[in-house]
Amino acid sequence: MEDFSAGDVPLGAFPGPLYQERWSAGYKDGTPDTAGQVSGGKSGYYPSKVLSVQNGALDWFLRSENGISMGAAPTPKIPNSSANPPRANSLLYGRYSVRYRADPMPGFKTAWLLWPDSGIWPRDGEIDFPEGDLAKIIYGAVHFARSGADAFDKFDSDQSVSSWHVATTEWSPGRVEFFLDGRSLGATTTDAPSTPMHFILQTESCLPICPAPETQGHVSLDWISMWVPA
After folding, report:
1. Looking at residue 186, what DSSP letter applies?
2. What is the predicted pLDDT for the residue at 79?
3. N vs C: which end of the chain shows fewer Cβ within 10 Å?
4. CA–CA–CA angle 102, 171, 95 (5° rounding)
5. Rounded-to-integer distance, Cα 125 and Cα 180, Å
């Protein structure tokens, strides 16, 4: 479990000495986010301008500069032997919980996801939770592990991100289930991912709308816990 109690890290310095053994800042500054990769839009990952640790929480300061909307995608390091060769954050099944909240920011979104180590998509699937525009409801999605066109099951909540929530994913052989504050949003058994994946706290913009230039605010991660099968 990570509760960011080791101390604060100023904006631009995460993970720093306090957290570098357990975290990576993720994609480097200037890396296009999902919308940027697909459409060439002016949005991307800028951890040096977004990430810090404040008052016992990992903080994303989301905003736009010079017409570019900025997010970040930090990644926890979880040494294990799921992958061959081993990687620092490879997982095969398990239970993943986060306690988080965000300011309502239309055009910015979370897509905190398990992504296949193989990088082969959609063949090896994808699991997203919590996902959603930061001015709308929280939902989860499981992209089926199959070749061909992308297909997925989506599970909506009736909750916004403006309050603290605990979002939990339970991934087991043949099944993925999502819980929000202990209440199940639903489960799928359709072509559930079955190969090692890694957890990325992908926070981005422009899917499908971009934030207004003046839109800014914070996403806060209070804690994250992961239970991985032995």
Report:
1. E
2. 64
3. C
4. 60
5. 22
Q: What angle do CA 202, 129, 86 make, to 5 degrees?
A: 65
Structure tokens given for 176:
């993925």
Decide: helix, strand or coil at residue 217. Answer: strand
Return the ∠ at Cα 65 (arms to 35 and 114), rounded to 5°: 35
Beta bridge partners of 69: 43, 64
Alpha carbon 212 to its chain centroid, in Å, reads 22
54 vs 50: CA distance, rounded Å: 12
Sign of CA dihedral 9, 12, 16, 22: positive
Residue 7 exposure: Cα atoms within 13 Å on the Cβ side:
9
Distance CA 62, CA 129 (A): 19
CATH of domain 75-227: 2.60.120.200
How confident is residue 88, by pLDDT bands cut at 50, 70 and 90?
Answer: low
Calpha distance 127→109 (Å, rounded) = 15
Burial class of 134 by CB neighbour count within 10 A (0 to 12, 13 to 18, 19+):
buried
Per domain, the residue ranges of the chain are 75-227
- The pTM of the whole model exceeds 0.90: yes
| Measured distance CA(110)–CA(137) in Å, rounded | 11
